[in-house]
Amino acid sequence: MKLSKNALAGIALLASAALGLTACGSNASTPAASGSPSDAAASGEGITVYNAQHESLTQEWVDAFTKETGIKVTMRQGSDTELSNQIVQEGAASPADVFLTENSPAMAQVENAGLFADVDKATLDQVPAEFRPSTGKWTGIAARSTVLVYDKNKISEDKLPKSMLDLANPEWKGKWAASPSGADFQAIVAALLELKGEAATEEWLKGMKENFKAYKGNSTAMKAVNAGEVDAALIYHYYYYGDQAKTGENSKNVTPYFFKNQDPGAFLSVSGGGVLKSSKKAADAQAFLKFITGKKGQEILKTGTSFEYAIASQVDANDKLVPIKELQAPTVDPAKLNSTKVTDLMTKAGLL
User: Fold this and answer.
1) Could you please report the per-residue DSSP string of 139-203?
2) Cα(22)–Cα(157) distance, integer angstroms
């Protein structure tokens, strides 16, 4: 049977359309390679970041990343512990693609629950080993140093404690402050636990309970020192430098003291970032993590107003900060910081 020219043309058109549909179906079902961001502008989709870092800092990262890649980012804000508990509860159904924290213990909690995907090697290669966990399941993105801020009108330099452990001694009774309910302080205790063991940590917390005054938040504790309510406070460095960069009204009577000498009080807390194993946009999530640990992301730390330490891509810290090498921080594997044990010990000591 002979077919007319019109019929042959119709068959060819149908065949071409079928091939086109097959090709489209093939592309749709092929996942993007890890670390290779998808065409976000075409998809209209973005990633969701559970953010426990300072919102203003992460917003700077998000804006720069979206400008460069076109990938949209939605932030859900909360504290370290709040969001880590939420991710563990959500499990494989979590809508989060990326989790960012201020401190390491919350990252370790999610890692121990088996919820992180491996971080792309190209990202890990940007971050020195001392600023990321040995497991490679997440990475450091920034850091903050433990510091004792003190009233220079009340304490002479020769009377400062040689070690953070000295704050548990009787001569410091009623003279120093802290914010024990915060994730910042609990990370410091987690480092003490890893460095000195459970017995020494329990003993120090017992002395702390006898000696310290509790305040809600690091900035509040520093303000108390500045106002003469207490002689000193154990906090993170950037509260002082951030206030100094503004009006200095909450830190004019305050001086930061760095313990150094690998003391537990010289602990450098690593802020973490990880990609959730359940992410349906893993390539874009990995791209975001690579961006914030890359040169452009770390430059935001160097030139911005967060005053946290840049730690990756060979970017130096903000010029106003003590260089990170001079901090003489103890070596602590961030993957080993145990938040559950810390809260148990602090509760037992009557601090929580």
Assistant:
1) EEEEEEEEEEEEETTT--GGGS-SSGGGGGSGGGTTTEEE-TTSHHHHHHHHHHHHHH-HHHHHH
2) 75
Q: Residue 340 corresponds to which amino acid?
A: T
Closest among 144, 75, 133, 62 to 103, alpha carbons compared: 144
Inter-residue contact 94 to 115 (CB < 8 Å):
yes
Global pTM value? 0.86
| Interval 121-159: pLDDT, tens | 999 999 999 999 999 999 999 999 999 999 999 999 999
Q: Which residue has the tokens 């349906």?
A: 280
Minimal CA–CA distance to 291: which of 118, 55, 122?
122
Contact 257, 322 (CB under 8 A): no
DSSP of 24-80: HHHHHHSPPPTT----HHHH--EEEEEE-S-HHHHHHHHHHHHHHH--EEEEEE--H
List the one residue out of 311, 303, 305 whose CA is nearest residue 334. 311
How confident is the model over 253-273, as pLDDT tens digits? 999 999 999 999 999 999 999
Residue 254's nearest CA partner among 185, 308, 177, 141 is 177
Structure tokens given for 351: 């601090």
Output the pLDDT for position 30: 30
Residue 104, pLDDT > 80, answer: yes
Both tokens of 132, joined, read 């990321």
Partners of 202 in beta bridges:
none
Q: Please, are residues 168 and 189 in contact by the beta-carbon 8 Å criterion? A: no
